[in-house]
């Protein structure tokens, strides 16, 4: 069997929050996600899911434990190599889309590719392909203000995959949408992940959506239970 796309091993993380007593947010979390697998992470508020996603995506570091992407150890990398690994290997989707308002849907997906050294023609072709997969290809030349909330979030999914990462991390990606739109947007996300064959770890409070993924893990009091 190939190495997991994402492999988290015995992660611990604590914060002082300005007090002498440290609060343990993660208490030995281990989790592996295989290429092509979609895993939901269900967690109550304050359980540590955002911290876990930030460590998995190399935005934060654990106090101890290991993060491996495609079998390669990420834990001890310097800032420059961590930034490069995060840019090329990991895509992020958040509850709010954070699209650049002055650029069109397609341009929001092209720009990260240009920053990564991709030729404009190739970047535009890839952006068009991603937008078609999630069903908003006909809206590619519209700015975010002209798009519905669901359309904006689908564009954000595409932007997260602009640089062809192997791991997608999503933190409540449909949390600010109404139930009907949430279902439509989630279906688009599932289709995008299946089409690209990457590994996805998706944090959600929505148990109905979680049940549609390959498997569900629960994070409680800083542990996978």
Automatic annotation (TrEMBL):
Enzyme Commission code(s) on record: 3.6.3.-
Molecular functions per Gene Ontology: ATP binding; ATP hydrolysis activity; transmembrane transporter activity
Enzyme class: hydrolase
Keywords for this protein: ATP-binding, Cell inner membrane, Cell membrane, Hydrolase, Lipoprotein, Membrane, Nucleotide-binding, Transport
Lipid metabolism recorded as keyword: no
UniProt keyword Cell membrane, yes or no: yes
A single cellular component GO annotation: membrane protein complex
A Pfam entry, by short name: ABC_tran
Superkingdom in the source lineage: Bacteria
GO terms of biological process kind: lipoprotein localization to outer membrane; protein localization to outer membrane
Residues annotated as domain ABC transporter: 6-225
UniProt-listed InterPro entries: AAA+_ATPase (IPR003593), ABC_transporter-like_ATP-bd (IPR003439), ABC_transporter-like_CS (IPR017871), ABC_transpr_LolD-like (IPR015854), MacB-like_ATP-bd (IPR017911), P-loop_NTPase (IPR027417)
Family of this protein: Belongs to the ABC transporter superfamily. Macrolide exporter (TC 3.A.1.122) family.
Name the UniProt record assigns to this protein: Lipoprotein-releasing system ATP-binding protein LolD
């Amino acid at each position: 069997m190939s190495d997991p796309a994402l492999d988290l091993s015995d992660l611990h993380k604590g914060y002082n929050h300005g007090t002498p007593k440290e609060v343990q947010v993660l208490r030995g979390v281990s989790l592996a996600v295989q290429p092509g697998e979609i895993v939901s992470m269900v967690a109550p508020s304050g359980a540590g899911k955002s911290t876990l996603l930030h460590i998995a995506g190399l935005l934060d570091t654990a106090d101890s434990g290991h993060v491996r992407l495609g079998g390669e150890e990420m834990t001890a990398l310097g800032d420059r190599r961590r930034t490069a690994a995060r840019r090329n290997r990991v895509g992020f989707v958040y509850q709010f889309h954070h699209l650049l308002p002055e650029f069109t849907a397609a341009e929001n997906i092209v720009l990260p590719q240009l920053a990564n050294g991709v030729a404009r023609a190739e970047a535009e072709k890839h952006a068009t392909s991603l937008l078609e997969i999630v069903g908003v290809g006909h809206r590619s030349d519209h700015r975010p203000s002209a798009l519905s909330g669901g359309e904006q979030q689908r564009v954000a999914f595409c932007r997260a995959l602009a640089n062809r990462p192997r791991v997608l991390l999503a933190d409540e990606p449909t949390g600010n949408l109404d139930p009907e739109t949430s279902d439509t947007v989630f279906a688009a996300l599932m289709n995008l992940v299946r089409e690209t064959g990457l590994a996805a770890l998706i944090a959600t409070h929505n148990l109905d959506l979680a049940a549609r993924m390959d498997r569900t893990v629960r994070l409680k009091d800083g542990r996978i239970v």
